[in-house]
From TrEMBL, chain A:
Residues 35-264 form the Solute-binding protein family 3/N-terminal domain. This is General L-amino acid transport system substrate-binding protein. Residues 1-24 form the signal peptide. Belongs to the bacterial solute-binding protein 3 family. Gene3D superfamilies: Periplasmic binding protein-like II. One of its GO terms (biological process) is amino acid transport. InterPro entries: Bact_solute-bind_prot3 (IPR051455), Solute-binding_3/MltF_N (IPR001638).
UniProtKB/TrEMBL annotation, chain B:
GO terms for biological process: amino acid transport. It comes from Allorhizobium borbori. Pfam families: BPD_transp_1. The lineage of its organism: Bacteria, Pseudomonadati, Pseudomonadota, Alphaproteobacteria, Hyphomicrobiales. InterPro entries: AA_ABC_transptr_permease_3TM, ArtM/GltK/GlnP/TcyL/YhdX-like, MetI-like, MetI-like_sf. It is found in: Cell inner membrane; Cell membrane. This is General L-amino acid transport system permease protein. Belongs to the binding-protein-dependent transport system permease family. HisMQ subfamily. The chain crosses the membrane at residues 41-63, 115-133, 140-160, 172-199, 211-235, 293-314, 320-339, 351-369.
């Protein structure tokens, strides 16, 4: 996402400074500590944010709780390390955190050079555009000649240039250093279009004087697959984190929710669901992961299925009101797809 | 020579008459200071016009239009924004500050344990006030309590884990509490350490001198952000696996060392100003090195550099907000974190939050500045110009 270069430099320096990370199995370390240490954002609306009482809430935070539920059967056994864009990778690399859930884009350099592993994508983000409804624009392709507000030094700025060039459109970039400045410039009408990651556009829109007069266009011009990262070299832990996400997605596909899971568990005859919930005879799915067989039950019981986590934190049930869009299930035209759990 | 004075010579001075009312009345003051010449008149009128344009609007925004109570964004958002205020409304959102006030002070410190930082705060005030009043007795005991006993008690109270207190980890600390802890430790460590470094830099022992110069120049030559970043990000990579040093503690050490390097140079400035004769006088009285420094040189040097010392303290107090870049939440960090919360996002919440944070910072800095002014006057023994 942003500040990639700096993070990469720090991460690379970090790698140079030490031998490959902790050799002890992360699962054993987590179990002996008695809690999961989860690296999250130091404050991003909808993804990781403390409430009035100081408890962390959000989409990424619920994922941390889900992993804790899978490991301990208790979603409260988790502690959070808030990090900035620069400190997130060293925090994971140094072993300070066990897993990184911090709206982090999966890229090849992070997967290889930085020494992390990515597999599950819990949120497909991408760069989008927001315009005033007064312009009567329905698609980004109608934006020729527009003044575009953008933050300098980000991949956003480069993607913007690529997109307009590829589509032979003219535009005037209005560039600022800080996100607050970009917000102010857009609010004051100094530019017609605001571009940044789509998930961010929704929270920015909420802070405008007339949110209903602005619309987020449907085009997404970059790929920002956000997902959890773990250190390379610990396949078991990598599996647990990845399959926690797949369990959440699979539960939504089955129609299992936090509310109805006990009822379904008692009454179901579907062998798939029985296998999923660990109530099939001689099931080894959970124990093969290094967990108990009711791991998936514990996850859903604690945080609900993927759809519930989404709606509660960033979707219609939250002030952000982000549409499911490409984050819908594959069966509903989205990209969220869980490999078979069998 | 006759000592007789002629009758027309007065033998005492006439008591000075008060100046004519034309010179002392408010009208005269205004005439003299604001409208003395055409140029003054124009500047005054422009200034008054500016004030007249700004102040009523600011007061209206800050107090009259402001929204005072509420528990979510609806009280500060207009109908178009999904709130309850009429369209076109704008005003300060004090409801936001009220709703999150506890968090601004204590961060995410557990609700049921918040009496602990509160108690620490009360202890700090109780110990700080007498040490700041020159006439209050028992300064030595007071200083011992404040700088030795109090930090230990405060540590156990805040962190817990002993004496039946629940353990509260430092990632949960935040807000004004963190700002004050960082500043207190920075101030309490930097003054003595700075004195030692300044003396070391002027020492005749080459190794000591080189060490002090090296420390001061290295620390002073890098930005505080770099020091914090090294402490937060790089240090854990150098430590053996399994070793962890608390993040907050690392930041504390970083801030204290940074302030010490600056303090050392301020104190050295004072030492340079003390004439050599003072040292020689002390030597000829047979005082030892430490007696000489403690009784003769340092009291004069410190007095000279009070403005510089307080300047460093104020700078340190404001620099503590940099810890937010390493994922810690001081007062400013926690305010920023809260106005990004979706349940409070409105166009006016960030401004209100920043005004609040700025005001709190100002109160503390202004207090320090006024106190230093008072100390300068109190210690003034003939250097006044």
């Amino acid at each position: 996402m942003k500040k990639t270069l700096l993070s990469a430099a720090i991460g690379a320096a970090a790698l140079g400074a030490m031998a490959p990370a902790a050799s002890a199995a992360t699962l054993d370390t987590v179990k002996s500590k008695g809690f999961l240490q989860c690296v999250v954002n130091s404050g991003l609306a909808g993804f990781a944010q403390p409430d009035a009482a100081g408890n962390w809430n959000g989409f990424d935070v619920d994922y941390c709780r889900a992993v804790a539920a899978a490991v301990f059967g208790d979603a409260s056994k988790v502690k959070f390390t808030p990090t900035t864009a620069q400190t997130r990778f060293p925090a994971l690399q140094s072993g300070e955190g066990d897993v990184l859930f911090r709206n982090t884009t999966w890229t090849i350099s992070r997967d290889t050079a930085l020494g992390f592993n990515f597999r599950a994508v819990n949120y497909y983000d991408g760069q989008g555009f927001m315009v005033s409804k007064k312009l009567n624009v329905k698609s980004a392709l109608e934006l020729s000649g527009a003044a575009v507000c953008v933050q300098s030094g980000t991949t956003t700025e480069l993607n913007l240039a690529d997109y307009f060039k590829a589509n032979n459109l003219q535009y005037n970039p209005v560039v600022f250093e800080k996100v607050e400045e970009v917000n102010a410039a857009y609010a004051a009408g100094r530019c017609d279009v605001y571009t940044t990651d789509q998930s961010g556009l929704y929270s920015i829109r909420l802070g405008l004087a007339n949110p209903d007069e602005h619309v987020v266009l449907p085009e997404i011009i970059s790929k920002e697959p956000l997902g959890p990262a773990v250190r390379q070299g610990d396949d078991q832990w990598f599996d647990i984190v990845s399959w926690t996400h797949y369990a959440l997605v699979q539960a939504e596909e089955f129609g299992i929710t936090k509310a109805n899971i006990d009822e379904i568990k008692g009454s179901t005859t579907n062998p798939d669901i029985k296998r999923f919930l660990g109530i099939e005879k001689d099931s080894k799915i959970g124990t093969d992961l290094g967990l108990t067989n009711d791991w998936a039950y514990n996850i859903i019981k604690a945080v609900g299925n993927y759809g519930e986590v989404f709606e509660r934190n960033i979707g219609e049930g939250s002030p952000l009101k982000i549409q499911r869009g490409i984050n819908a299930l594959w069966s509903k035209g989205g990209l969220q797809y869980a490999p078979p759990i069998r | 020579m006759s000592t007789h004075s002629p009758a027309f010579v007065r033998d005492q001075m006439i008591v000075a008459s008060p100046p004519p009312t034309n010179d002392t009345s408010t009208a005269a003051w205004i005439r003299k200071n604001l409208f003395a010449s055409p140029k003054d008149t124009i500047l005054s009128l422009v200034g008054l016009a500016l004030l007249f344009m700004i102040i009523p609007g600011a007061l209206n925004w800050l107090f009259v239009q402001a929204s005072w109570v509420g528990s979510d964004r609806s009280v500060c958002a207009t109908i178009a924004q999904g709130g309850a205020q009429p369209d076109g409304w704008t005003g300060a959102c004090w409801a936001f500050v009220g709703d999150r006030f506890q968090q601004f002070i204590f961060g995410r410190y557990p609700l049921e344990e918040r009496w602990r930082p509160l108690l620490v705060g009360i202890m700090l005030i109780a110990l700080l006030i007498p040490i700041l009043i020159p006439k209050a007795p028992r300064k030595g005991l007071n200083a011992l309590l404040l700088f030795v006993v109090f930090p230990i008690v405060a540590f156990f109270l805040l962190s817990g884990n002993y004496f039946g207190l629940a353990h509260v980890e430092t990632p949960l600390w935040g807000g004004l509490m963190v700002t004050l802890i960082l500043s207190f430790v920075g101030i309490a460590v930097s003054l003595p350490l700075g004195i030692v470094l300044a003396l070391g830099r002027r020492s005749h022992m080459p190794v000591v001198r080189m060490l002090c110069i090296g420390f001061i120049e290295i620390i002073r030559g890098v930005p505080l952000i770099t020091v914090l970043f090294m402490a937060n990000v790089m240090l854990p990579l150098f430590l053996p696996t399994g070793w962890t040093i608390d993040n907050f503690f690392r930041a504390l050490v970083g801030v204290a060392l940074f302030a010490s390097a600056y303090m050392a140079e301020v104190i050295r400035g004072g030492l340079q100003a003390i004439p050599k004769g003072q040292s020689e006088g002390a030597d000829s009285l047979g005082l030892s090195y430490w007696q000489k420094i403690w009784l003769v040189v340092m009291p004069q040097a410190i007095k000279l550099v009070i403005p510089g010392i307080v300047n460093t303290f104020i700078g340190l107090f404001k620099d503590t907000s940099l810890v937010s870049i390493i994922g810690m939440f001081d007062l400013l960090g926690i305010v920023q974190l809260n106005f990004r919360d979706p349940s409070w996002i409105t166009p006016v919440t960030p401004i209100t939050g920043l005004i609040f944070a700025g005001f709190i910072f100002w109160i503390f800095c202004f207090g320090m500045s006024r106190y230093s002014g008072f100390m300068e006057r109190h210690l003034d023994t003939g250097h006044k110009r």
